[in-house]
Amino acid sequence: MRHHRPAGSVNNSRTRLLRHGTWQAAKWKQVQVGDLLMVESNCLLPADILLLSSSEPKGICYIETANLDGETNLKVRQSLPATSEHKQPSQLHSLQGQLVCEPPDDDTTKFKGSLYLDQVRYPVSLNQLLMRGTCLRKTSYVIGLVVYTGADTKVMKNSKPVPLKRSRVERESNRYFLLLLLILAFFTLFTTVANMVWTSRIGPFAWYITNNEISVGHFGAVLITCFIMFHTIVPISLQVTLEFMRIFQAYFIQCDLDMYDPIADIAAEARTSSLNEELGQVNFIFSDKTGTLTQNSMVFQGATVAGRMYGDAVSNGAEAYEFVSGVNSMRSEAAQGQNKDLDDFLSILTVCHTVIPERDSHDNLLEYSASSPDESALVYAAKDMGYELFERSLDTFVIVKVNGEMRRFEVLATFEFTSDRKRMSMVVRCPNGAIRVFCKGADSVIFSRLQSPHLVSETTNHMSKFAMAGLRTLCIAVGDMPQSEWSRLHTEYENARNDIERREAKLALVAEKLEKNLRLLGATAIEDRLQVGVPATINDLLLAGIRIWVLTGDKLETAVNIGYSCRLLQPEMEVRTLTGSSLSQVRSAVAELSHWLCGIASVKGKEPALVIEGESLSWASHQSVRNEFIDVCLQCRTVICCRVSPKQKSDVVRYVREAMPSAVTLAIGDGANDVPMIQESHVGVGLKGKEGLQAAAASDYSLSQFRFLKKLLLVHGAWNYHRVTIVILFSFYKNITIYVTAFWFALVSGFSGQVMFEKWTQALYNVFFTGATPFALGVWDRSCSVENCMRYPQLYRESQGSDRYNFKVFALWMLNGVYHSAIIFLCVLLAVSTGAVFSDGKTAGLYYLGSLVYAIAVITVGLKAGLEHTAWTGMSHLAIWGGIGNYLVFLVISSNFFPHAGGNFAEVVGYDRALFGSGMFWYLLMLVPALALTRDVAWKAYKKTCRKTLREEVFEMEKLRKDPSTVLFQGTYRK
Amino acid sequence: MLEPVEDSQAVVRPEDDDNIDDEDLEGANNSAAAGAGNASGATSNRPPSSAFHQQKLPAWQPLLTAGTVFPVFLIMSIAFICLGVALLLANSNISELSIDYTDCKRIGDRTPCANLVKKPEFYYNYSVCQCRLEFKLDKPMTGQVYAYYALTNFHQNHRKYVKSHDRMQLSGRRYSDLDAECEPYRTSADGKWIAPCGAVANSLFNDTFKLMRRVGSLETVPWTVKGISWSADVARKYGRVDTWNGTAKPPNWAVPESARSPIGYTGDEELQVWMTVAALPTFRKLHRRLIHSDISAYAEGLPAGNYSLLVNYSYPVAGFGGTKSFVLATAGLLGGRNAGLGGLAIAVGCLHLALCCALAVLHTHAKRNRETDPYYGMDPLHRALLENTPTGASSADTASEDGDVSVVARRPRTT
């Protein structure tokens, strides 16, 4: 249900369509392919549209794609020059043409087509496509041609139908249910056949029994009677108990103050309750990076300029480093204005980027809108040092305000950052008239384009220190360009820019010619702040035996960097990258990796980690290599996938699920790009972050911080797993215990199907007498204290596997129920065998036997529930003693009903006095539950003395007021 | 101009710090949470902080190890053995004499009554095979003495049999349109309603006894039929019948119910006892209570001596291989004589004693071993987990040690 509500509101959202020559308001669902659409600022696009024109010159518009790929920066799209001036309805009306494009697909990084206007072909690409779900920013309006709508849009192609998720425990329980049905069938058939034999052999002589001839009808009637008698061993009420229980469990998850973020004022939310126990079994976590592990906010921390290091990495222990910010020293030096290199350095930071300052109507700076958080961090840092980016016009000029003085840099050429080039450069005419090349990029590409190796060793040294502290580095270099050379390159540049089909490649060629003979200035150090507590949380989740994979749309370097800073990757790990841009390349790379893994397995202390790029991933998912590829991945301690699309994220989850069918996967993410992965995994966790609520809306559980995952899994997951499994086992057990006595009774009643319990008493068993005990067990029991669950993540491993809940455990529990029922029945049989059971010599009958069996079974089952409790809360007392008390009260009531309720309760007239007034009842009450549970208590005592689980060991330590860490974990604990 | 920039740079959370550990986090969270809660009041999404909501209800957490369980077993074994011994002693004071008269012979021609009393001819003629049994009571029975009849191999608990009656008819609230379950004993051949209807009533045990003591001549032992049924049955389960018009007697009965008890079923305790169907195919039903009046020879109970039991034998059991017995017995706190009750208690006590010893041994053994091996007593799998976890401590532990995070940095192999 919950997934339908948003759909309804989406379908009825408003937009504007060109109809009959005017812009008319319309609902989203009315938008059709071929319509002309106008979208206004800050509105979501209702369909994939081809940009025709916009309010800005040259048909430029800015969009935010956070809903698609999680990136919050503004991106620029530009319409074809041929259409960019068509803004009025009349102009648009005159636009006649045809668009030929690819059939709808799920690839958000590709679009190709041709627009034919007046028989002229114009190639269109991703640069003209505005995808559904993106948001228009900084542009008053855009006008576009609808290309794909509804389910054909790229974003919808990426999403999948909402899966119905059921937990592993539930799936297994359904199998066990079948076993119970088999038992039921056996009891029914056995009793029926035995009845036939009895009726044919003894029946003819038992003259007092009437209507007892063998016939087909008789057989059918006995079969039905027996089925009705035995069907009660199947706990139909279990589903109801489980549902109620889960609602409470989910409520407690939402109430947890430790998972409440007071700053954002967001509490955890359990959007489903059917996966509570699945949280206790997670083997794999697939995590998004941006906004999930990190805060998605970059902070400038220091730099190295001309061989001088601002800020330092200081050791704070054996292996870890902390970074002391160098911002202050840099700021004061910049204020003096003496250092020419620093001036250049800061100028480049302020000019060489694609950041756009956003201003309000009073010209006050609102924010810098950057294509990447790194860029914005650099621009903000420069502003902090006195170099303020004041105004910028795309491709024409940049005005920088340095200590009150305006400097105007004329932009001659811009070469944007791509993952291939790994650098960005700009050709600018400086205020003094000189033409210079500003360049920033990865060290590997910058160092090879330098004039001389001057400063390289110092800078490298400093950069490695930055990297050790987990900072992201970027080299800054500058080059001088004589006017003559620029004049020559200028035309080449313009030609390349105007070439529509091979523009990228041609521009790259021009850039190669420009970016040489550079002079290294230094490097920046930026911290992508991890969310609070992420490294500690990851460490604990790893200790808990969970494998964590990072799936991100981000760049490889960034992903690896974050991997290190959140300690998923560690210095002593051997990290390999899977690369390859064709099937054969990837195949050989995978083979090589698997060879490498064989080698590394023998080296102690070396652990393998794998980094995969999106393109190689798509090749590796080809049928012929996939199995080997996944095998390699599973052997690695951790896997980081970068540059992956939303679809690929979910594919990775699916491959792992297919390769390890018994493993439980959890996906955590915060953006709409994580939705497919969240839906594909067993448990989806959404972070309510900066990137909207799509992920949270599609998730099963939503949190506001990554670190809350620890308590969600280690405490709530582990608890709920123990609770749900014990409740299932107990519910089956309690029905077996009482109703298998019917089978024992059948052996002495001619297999006739006679029931020894009064029918109402029998019917209320699951509701009033034993209904609350499983509930209390399932809601309030705590298998281990919160403190210990959190301190010793190893405890999680107990619930992770299926040691506590598998077919064997289930069968043993059922056998135990049969054993208890036999003990109870035999003891009562012994007691009533003489017939005279009262001190006044009176005799009792069938229902007296039944009442004794029933009372003792209720008490035994109640006490057994108590035995299974780890923590007896007030609720447990209420449930156990209340259930037994309910029975006693009901006994009194039912004994005094007849003849006032029709023929009901006739069997138990006067049973209150008959039971409470007889020594036999109290004798059996004392003896039989004690006897029945002897085995259980003794076995538990043995187990907890000689075969303790880790959880029991820690629990015992806690009870004995010993610190488990000093005893159990002593080998590792350092004083 | 500076302000907003400062703001946007300060996206870092206030609690954010480079070197954060969990302890600090919780503290920060809680204090901040408290602040937020106070400041924003009703609009806050802050969950309630009660022990209930935070799952911190106080709890009793019993520790079930050999060390804590063996004293419990010890106490229970002592209690049960004492109980068992007491029950056995009490049981020995209960007297019981059972006389199987299935094969008794007709007075006069010495024909075995079992041969004569057979379904259906003899039974339907309401004939009686009179036989006499002589027996000697070696010891007197002291206290209230009860006379029972006992049947074996009689499945009064058979479903077809049990349901063949009409509760409302017996409670005196229904005279006609009886429960169909009573068939074929619902209406008589001439269309009258059978009172009481059904197979249970129809098969009413109809042997009668006369117990006589040989004191020179034969002296009839006085007994009564009053008080053999439960008082609740007399009071509520069985009712009065205002009129017997239009009713017929059950076919097997010699006399109609109106002759047995003119006021109705509430007055027919013999019928009530019979209709309380027995739990097992071997059963005993109370037949008569001896009258122990102060002035008679039976004031103390049943004196020792020679007795003669006159049986009006008319109930057929031989056909299904059953037996009939006449039982004289006294009753204890737990009813009739049953050595099994005391025996069971002693057996349970002994079982607990044995387990107590075993667990005590286990406990001392484990305690001794733990001094040398801290992992002793652990499941091998879990033990392996601990031993293969060189860095067992979590971040919570290490972080509290003044920034020593080196332990955190290393991590066990978990495959």
UniProtKB/TrEMBL annotation, chain A:
Enzyme Commission no:
7.6.2.1
Q: Which reaction does it catalyse?
A: ATP + H2O + phospholipidSide 1 = ADP + phosphate + phospholipidSide 2
Q: Which domain of life is it from?
A: Eukaryota
Q: Which GO terms describe its biological process?
A: phospholipid translocation
Identify the catalytic residues: 288
Residues covered by the P-type ATPase C-terminal domain: 697-948
Q: Can you give the residue ranges of the P-type ATPase A domain?
A: 12-73
GO cellular component terms listed in the entry, alphabetical order: plasma membrane; trans-Golgi network
- Can you tell me which residues bind ATP? 288-290, 375, 417, 440, 472, 552-554, 643, 649, 673-674
Q: Which GO terms describe its molecular function?
A: ATP binding; ATP hydrolysis activity; ATPase-coupled intramembrane lipid transporter activity; magnesium ion binding
Q: Which InterPro entries match?
A: ATPase_P-typ_cyto_dom_N, ATPase_P-typ_P_site, ATPase_P-typ_TM_dom_sf, ATPase_P-typ_transduc_dom_A_sf, ATPase_P-type_domA, HAD-like_sf, HAD_sf, P-type_ATPase_IV
Identify which cofactors the protein needs according to its UniProt entry: Mg(2+)
Q: Which residues cross the membrane?
A: 176-198, 218-238, 736-757, 763-780, 810-833, 845-866, 878-900, 920-938
Q: How does it sit in the membrane?
A: Multi-pass membrane protein
What are the protein's UniProt keywords? ATP-binding, Magnesium, Membrane, Metal-binding, Nucleotide-binding, Translocase, Transmembrane, Transmembrane helix
Report the subcellular localization: Endomembrane system; Membrane
- For the keyword Ion transport, the answer is no
Per its UniProt entry, what is the enzyme's top EC class, as one word?
A: translocase
Q: Which residues take part in binding Mg(2+)?
A: 288, 290, 670, 674
- What family classification does the UniProt entry report for this protein? Belongs to the cation transport ATPase (P-type) (TC 3.A.3) family. Type IV subfamily.
This chain's protein is named: Phospholipid-transporting ATPase
Source species of the chain: Macrostomum lignano
From TrEMBL, chain B:
The listed locations are: Membrane
Q: Which InterPro entries match?
A: CDC50/LEM3_fam (IPR005045)
Entry keyword set: Membrane, Transmembrane, Transmembrane helix
Task: List compositional bias (Acidic residues) regions by residue number.
Answer: 15-26
Q: Where is the composition biased (Low complexity)?
A: 27-45
TM spans, by residue?
A: 69-90, 313-335, 341-362
Q: Which GO terms describe its cellular component?
A: endoplasmic reticulum; Golgi apparatus; plasma membrane
Polar residues bias located where? 389-398
Name residues in a coiled coil: none
**What family does the database annotate?**
Belongs to the CDC50/LEM3 family.
Which PANTHER family does the entry link to? CDC50, ISOFORM A, CELL CYCLE CONTROL PROTEIN 50
The name under which this protein is listed is: Cell cycle control protein 50A
**Organism of provenance:** Macrostomum lignano
